């Protein structure tokens, strides 16, 4: 290096930086892992209807989101950002809660959790299509192995393999809806911020959710026990709102294809909560399968991804608050000599 030169040799990516996105994602997944068992609790003994649970929790979260946006004076989204927020709202505010709530009227929490384990692979595919990420072959092999393990779980019932049930179709629809909401939300979080993204999506969907909640109450007033109301409160405050803060932050830091595989740990967490809270049987086959899924998740997260060249990423995704570029790209004017 010449004297007075401002150039510095390239340094490897810090270990903490490499795992920052997956770490935030894992925190969000831990919060989400209670969603299926607690939804099952709210639906027990017809205390709440599936429509009330799905729509009502979005209303609760929408009130929190609207208050947070108003108190902090956030700038409103612009132009096409509203359309993209509509995709997020349709996927994670309406689609996933509605489809899973109706599926859980028939399916067990443990079975639902492992079908939802297909979500990481679906999110990874959409991240490639929308986020211009280019995972290596090793990533796809581990992601595919996790998806196969989840599919085997879905077909394994009562010690034998059976055909698909209508609840499985609802759960697969929930997977597609959530994957769309996760991928688009992860990109928007780089522009709007993590909590702002889910907040605006909740506010945008609030009118529809309020109407659906009113319809459900008119059809069957909620008569849940204190434990069911506590479970409903968690779904509204954490599953529908607070859990998305670390989750979207992790996706924004990225790479999304890598962070999405952290979701493969969610079935194992959910199976544990289902066994502890709902007394659902945890068989040895399920335990072995869950361990295989977690192993696939760990392998996928450790896979190094090739970042796309700057020219391959649309300009609309380069924002001043982009967590990927804000702290890593040097200022273009810091060392410009004064002429």
Task: Give a topology summary.
Elements: H1 15-18, H2 20-32, H3 35-43, H4 50-72, H5 80-103, H6 109-115, H7 119-131, H8 137-155, E1 156-157, E2 160-161, H9 166-192, H10 194-219, H11 226-242, H12 244-253, H13 256-260, H14 266-277, H15 284-302, H16 323-326
Antiparallel strand pairs: 1-2
Helix pairs in contact: 2-12, 3-11, 4-5, 4-10, 4-11, 5-9, 5-10, 6-8, 6-14, 7-8, 7-9, 8-15, 9-10, 9-12, 10-12
Protein name: DMT family transporter
Membrane topology: Multi-pass membrane protein
Keywords: Membrane, Transmembrane, Transmembrane helix
- Structural class category: mainly alpha
- The radius of gyration is 21 Å
Strand content: under 5%
Could you name the ranges where pLDDT drops below 50 across 5 or more consecutive residues?
A: 1-15, 305-339
Give the tally of structural domains: 1
**How far from one another are the termini?**
24 Å
Put simply, the count of helices is 16
Shape: globular
Look at the structure and give the mean pLDDT. 77
Question: Level of helix content?
Answer: 55-70%
Strand segment tally: 2
Order of SSEs: HHHHHHHHEEHHHHHHHH
Largest sheet: 2 strands, antiparallel
| Strand neighbour order, sheet with most strands | 1-2
Brief synopsis:
It is a multi-pass membrane protein. Its main location: membrane. With 339 residues, this protein is mainly alpha-helical.
Structure description:
This protein is mainly alpha-helical and 339 residues long. The chain has one domain. The protein contains 16 helices and 2 strands. It has a two-stranded antiparallel sheet. α2 packs antiparallel against α12, α8 packs antiparallel against α15 and α9 packs antiparallel against α10. The protein is globular, with a radius of gyration of 21 Å. The chain starts with 14 loop residues before the first helix and ends in a 13-residue tail after the last helix. 50% of the residues are buried.
């Amino acid at each position: 290096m010449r004297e007075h030169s401002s150039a510095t040799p390239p340094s490897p990516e810090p270990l903490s930086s490499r795992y920052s996105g997956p770490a935030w994602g894992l925190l969000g997944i831990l919060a989400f892992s209670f969603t299926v068992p607690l939804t099952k609790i709210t639906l027990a003994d017809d205390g709440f209807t599936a429509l009330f649970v799905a729509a009502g929790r979005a209303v609760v979260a929408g009130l929190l989101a609207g208050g947070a946006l108003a108190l902090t004076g956030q700038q409103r989204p612009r132009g096409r950002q509203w359309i993209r927020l509509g995709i997020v709202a349709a996927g994670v505010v309406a689609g996933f809660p509605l489809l899973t709530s109706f599926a859980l009227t028939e399916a067990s929490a443990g079975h639902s959790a492992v079908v939802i384990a297909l979500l990481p692979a679906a999110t990874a595919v959409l991240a490639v299509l929308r986020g211009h990420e280019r995972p290596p072959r090793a990533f796809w092999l581990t992601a595919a192995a996790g998806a196969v393990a989840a599919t085997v779980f879905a077909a394994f019932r009562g010690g034998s393999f059976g055909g698909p049930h209508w609840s499985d179709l609802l759960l697969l629809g929930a997977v597609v809806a959530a994957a769309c909401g996760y991928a688009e939300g992860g990109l928007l979080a780089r522009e709007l911020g993590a909590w702002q993204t889910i907040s605006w999506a909740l506010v945008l969907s609030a009118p529809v959710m309020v109407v659906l909640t009113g319809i459900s109450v008119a059809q069957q007033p909620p008569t849940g026990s204190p434990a069911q109301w506590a479970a409903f409160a968690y779904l509204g405050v954490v599953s529908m709102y607070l859990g998305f803060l670390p989750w979207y932050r992790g996706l924004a830091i990225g790479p999304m294809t890598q962070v999405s595989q952290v979701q493969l740990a969610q079935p194992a967490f959910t199976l544990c909560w289902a066994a502890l809270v709902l007394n659902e049987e945890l068989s040895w086959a399920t335990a072995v399968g869950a361990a295989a899924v977690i192993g696939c998740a760990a392998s996928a997260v450790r896979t190094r991804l090739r970042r796309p060249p700057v020219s391959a990423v649309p300009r609309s995704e380069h924002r001043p608050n982009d967590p990927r570029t804000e702290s890593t790209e040097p200022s273009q004017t810091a060392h410009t000599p004064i002429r």
